[in-house]
Amino acid sequence: xxxxxxxxxxxxxxxxxxxxxxxxxxxxxxxxxxxxxxxxxxxxxxxxxxxxxxxxxxxxxxxxxxxxxxxxxxxxxxxxxxxxxxxxxxxxxxxxxxxxxxxxxxxxxxxxxxxxxxxxxxxxxxxxxxxxxxxxxxxxxxxxxxxxxxxxxxxxxxxxxxxxxxxxxxxxxxxxxxxxxxxxxxxxxxxxxxxxxxxxxxxxxxxxxxxxxxxx
Length: 216
Description:
By secondary structure, the chain is of the alpha/beta class. The chain has helices at residues 8-20, 44-59, 81-84, 88-94, 126-135, 141-156, 168-173, 182-193, and strands at 24-30, 36-43, 60-62, 67-73, 95-104, 158-162, 177-179, 199-202, 209-211.
């Protein structure tokens, strides 16, 4: 739901805040260097949405449209895929249906140190993951929710990791492809999609909000 301000999760959070008696919030918008751009205090709905507008100015990047291939660095979320996965969502906004997302990420700590069980189910279909969450088979619902989000991206596009910290066999358990180099990943994508397939590059994929023409 990257970039979607009015959504079911936000709606539920605000209902819970109302029931708990929360009247005000204090939020900040930071720049990529962690410096405060602006602070917002006030009504939980109005202050949040005012902050969203400033955040879009800081992190929003105009994009001309979707391309068959999106190549992105996970920087600054590099330590493990539990953090680096944030790169998937701007890439998903930018890639054409059936295209290829290539994520370049070091991930020295692998997939998720605190959620190792993800490898047991993350590569399954969205329907299977969702059913296992509902049935209580997947008990870690936070991990299940992330695995479900990754699976939905895979429905839209092929995902290839270029990572020293996540080897090919582990990437396969996540339902992803793996390449040793960016060149190898691009060559595979062009072999599948055609040599003339366009590429969009994100240097800071984890903290970029693509602004597409349809977003106004």
